[in-house]
Design goal:
The chain starts with 33 loop residues before the first helix and ends in a 15-residue tail after the last helix. A hairpin with a 4-residue loop joins strand 6 (213-218) and strand 7 (223-228). It has helices at residues 34-37, 45-53, 64-67, 90-100, 147-153, 165-174, 196-206, 253-256, 286-293, 311-324, 338-348, 353-374, 376-382, 385-391; strands at 72-78, 106-113, 116-125, 158-163, 182-187, 213-218, 223-228, 233-237, 268-271, 279-283, 299-302, 306-307, 351-352. Helix 10 (311-324) runs parallel beside helix 12 and helix 12 (353-374) packs across helix 14 (385-391). It is α+β, with helices and mostly antiparallel strands. It is built from 14 helices and 13 strands. Strands 3-2-4-5-9-10-1-11 form an eight-stranded mixed sheet, with helices on both faces.
Length: 406
């Protein structure tokens, strides 16, 4: 299987657009669709949630104010774990099962570049055995949605898409005009992305042998885990990461102003933040239930846990973000205190669902604070009501002209 069935996307450079993550629409046959499909222009979450899930999120219903519409949430793992998977391989196994059972003609997903396994490349997978090449994390931007043109040209009308929020939102916005017979959407949560080149520079700050790193993950126990080709494993506490040595624009403004960490328009979201060492599943609708059922007894599940209190962590993050004035959050803790805090955080800090709630509140506040600093005119259009509700307990209120209904 070639990395993509449409290598021409490299010859169609993305035009410059403010707040763009290169989802692929701007490289497609009709780049004008960006204006009505991009989540960074004028998102329509209530409208799309109603069409996709049958109703909008209800802040009074469980944790929907944080995570979006859902039927149930699970902590889960495949048994046995799949080799090469970032966690246990749930996402790619579902894609594999869809192809094995003939329910889709192709799966749109990411694989690694032949020259650099960390660099994502879009793939139109038509054989079940090729889903294994999509396992693992990539870091960078890749125009996944260009492959919608390729699928249409090849007459493939039953698709599954595995994507991050800034790919899933335009996919859903355009879904009615895609003329597909079947569309399954498996969403991966995404908090921050950067270019592949800057990711390599980050690896170089973490270890003196970055070329031997085969795995990196931000774990829910407040550590970054590195794995190396020789089998060695290194774990670094979050508080000891070299954040101060990163350039101010290491994470682009798009990531610092994204309001959809949990990929709320997917049928099934597969992440880890609330998984406490396993994966966290958010089943959002009947299609999501059917996707999960494809795994049968391969999947071990239980109710996700929750522990600790998030308010102190969120307040500290928001205070640092405001001080950073548009750059990366500052770290005000003295060096001598960091090992102590690194020891305490996995034990008394927010864990499980409480950690996921904390991350959603942090992202909501980060969005508003960065837009106020850099794109104040965009704030009214880019921030939906549910984001304002998340930050209200922390004293962040809309100023005149910042809310859509004004």
């Amino acid at each position: 299987m070639p990395p993509t069935d449409d290598p021409r996307y490299e010859a169609r450079p993305a035009p410059h657009r403010d707040l763009c993550t290169d989802c692929g629409l701007s490289r497609s046959q009709d780049p004008r669709r960006c204006g009505r499909a991009c989540q960074f222009i004028r998102p329509r979450y209530r409208e799309l949630e109603t069409r996709i899930h049958g109703r909008p999120r209800d802040p009074e219903r469980g944790d929907e104010g944080f995570f979006g519409v859902y039927r149930r949430m699970l902590q889960a793992a495949l048994e046995p774990p799949r080799e090469g998977a970032q966690w246990t391989g749930i996402t790619t196994r579902i894609g594999q099962r869809l192809l094995e059972t003939g329910q889709v003609d192709a799966v749109l997903a990411m694989t690694g570049d032949p020259e650099d396994p960390w660099r994502p490349r879009p793939a139109l997978v038509t054989r079940a055995e090729d889903m294994a090449r999509c396992r693992g994390m990539r870091m960078g931007f890749a125009p996944l949605l260009t492959l919608l043109d390729t699928a249409r040209a090849r007459g493939l009308r039953r698709l599954a898409v595995i994507g991050i929020p800034c790919q899933v939102y335009p996919l859903r916005a355009l879904e009615p005009e895609l003329d597909l017979d079947v569309l399954h959407v498996i969403g991966i949560p995404c908090s921050d992305n950067t270019t592949t080149e800057r990711f390599h520079a980050f690896l170089g700050l973490l270890t003196d042998r970055p070329g031997e790193v085969t795995y990196l993950e931000f774990m829910p126990d407040y550590h970054v885990e590195l794995r190396f080709r020789d089998g060695a494993v290194r774990r670094i506490p979050f508080l000891q990461l070299p954040i101060s040595r990163l350039p101010r624009d290491f994470f682009p403004l798009t990531c610092k102003t994204c309001v959809d960490y949990t990929n709320s328009l997917a049928d099934l979201t597969v992440g880890y933040m609330a998984g406490q060492g396993e994966q966290w599943l958010i089943v959002r609708n009947e299609r999501g239930e059917r996707l999960l059922s494809l795994l049968g007894n391969e999947l071990r599940t239980r109710e996700p846990g929750s522990a600790g209190k998030r308010q102190g962590s969120v307040k500290g993050f928001l205070a640092n973000t405001e001080k950073a004035a548009g750059g990366l959050p500052t770290r005000g803790m003295p060096d001598w205190a960091r090992p102590i805090a690194a020891f305490l955080m996995p034990r008394i800090g927010p864990r499980g669902l409480e950690l996921a709630r904390a991350r959603l509140e942090m992202k909501a506040g980060e969005t508003i604070l960065h837009l106020r600093q850099t794109r104040p005119r965009r704030l009214r259009h880019m921030v939906p009501d549910h984001v304002w509700r998340l930050v209200a307990p922390y004293g962040i209120e809309p100023r005149p002209g910042e809310r859509r209904d004004e």
